[in-house]
Design a protein that fits this description.
elongated, about 5% strand, mainly alpha, about 260 residues, two-stranded antiparallel ribbon, 2 domains
Length: about 260
């Protein structure tokens, strides 16, 4: 397999797609996903892993940098991807599906009886589903598959939670820095403004919860016991401070903290 041929734009999109889904500590030549992409592109695992490490050097969310031998095209495609998550994430998923000879409609798992609402089509529905799955994979990967509050790592109980709600900011719906890995309970609490994250990255619990502390059988301690505890930070895609501030001001249900 050749290691000297130039990378095309489509190949770079596939590499960025894999970079976003791969935990930082697993960017190496023994990673089965890296080996698989290398085989499909006619490259070596070393060249693919090195390309992913190059992207790490461009990632502003990383406290440390990876390799620095990046090309101008690397920078252009990276900037294009990170400036338009919705379009480029889907495009990279389409390329990946073609490479694997699979149908994205099957991955979207659309029931035959689905009725699309006004202005919605099957293709737009597929795109939304595919992008949602991409966002979940990115966020869970960044947090190494563990809730950032409790540390629970049962995948079926984890959600990729939006800091700024999906319905509010279309541009950042798929931005992984707008995501937190939360278990189902704390995801619901965060979404409903019962908890938020302070500037010091510690959990803040709404004063409304205090009314229920004395109630029996409500399990309120599942929320209150984490108050003032610092969240577990991801290896990359650190939560954006501006997004967290938005949540504190506009979602969190406690005026004293705003």
């Amino acid at each position: 397999m050749s290691e000297r041929k130039s990378w095309s734009r489509d190949e770079l999109l596939l590499a960025i797609n894999l970079y976003c889904k791969t935990p930082f500590g697993k960017i190496h030549v023994r990673n089965p996903d890296i080996i698989d992409l290398a085989n499909k592109l006619g490259r070596t695992p070393g060249s693919v892993s090195y390309k992913l490490a190059n992207f790490a050097s461009l990632d502003p969310s990383l406290p440390r940098k990876g390799a620095s031998n990046v090309s101008q095209l690397d920078r252009e495609v990276w900037a294009e991807f990170f400036d338009d998550w919705d379009t480029m994430a889907y495009k990279s998923e389409v390329l990946s599906a073609k490479l694997d000879k699979r149908d994205l409609k099957d991955a979207a798992d659309i029931p035959e009886e689905t009725i699309f609402g006004e202005g919605k089509t099957q293709s737009s529905f597929v795109k939304t589903r595919v992008n949602q799955d991409f966002f979940r994979t990115m966020v869970l990967s960044a947090y190494n598959g563990a809730c950032c509050i409790t540390g629970i790592s049962i995948q079926e109980l984890l959600n990729a939670s939006h800091i700024v709600p999906w319905s509010v900011d279309g541009k950042n719906r798929l931005n992984p820095r707008n995501g937190l890995c939360l278990n189902a309970l704390h995801d619901r609490a965060f979404d409903r403004g019962i908890i938020t994250i302070g500037e010091d990255l510690r959990i803040v619990v709404s004063s409304r919860v205090r009314r229920f502390k004395g109630s029996r059988g409500l399990g309120i301690e599942l929320i209150t016991s984490y108050e003032n505890k610092e969240i577990r930070l991801p290896k990359r895609f650190l939560p954006d401070p501006d997004f967290l501030e938005y949540h504190r001001r506009n979602v969190f249900q406690d005026k004293a903290v705003r």
